[in-house]
Amino acid sequence: MLVDKKIKPTKQQLFNEEQKKLLKNRKVVQLNKFIKGDVSAFSVNDLKIFKLIISKVDSKESLFRDFYEITTDEIKALNINEKHLYSETRKTLKRLANIYITFDEGESIREVGLIRNDFKFEKYTKKVLINFNKDMDEYLINLKKNFFMYDLIDIVNFKFKHTIKFYEYIKSQSLNVIKLKIETIKGILDLKNKYSRYTNFRTDVLEVILEEINESSNTLYISYTEERVGAKVEYIIFHVKRIKSDLLLEDNTNRNKYSYLIGKECEYLDKFYILDNVDTDKNTIILKEALTNNFTNIVKDNEIGVDETLKALFKTEFIESSPMNDEQDEVQRLLTVKDFKKFKEQVIKQYAGKNLGNNLPGFDEDDMISVQEETGYLINCTTGKAIKKEESLLIWRFLYKNRDLVGKTKNLVEDYMNKIFFIYKKNQFGDRELFKYMVADIKEEEDENNNIKYRLFIQNLNDPLQEIEKSKSLLTIEQLKIYIEENSKIDN
Question: What's the Cα-to-Cα distance from 130 to each of 97, 123, 127, 427, rounded to whole Å?
Answer without folding.
Answer: 10, 15, 10, 76
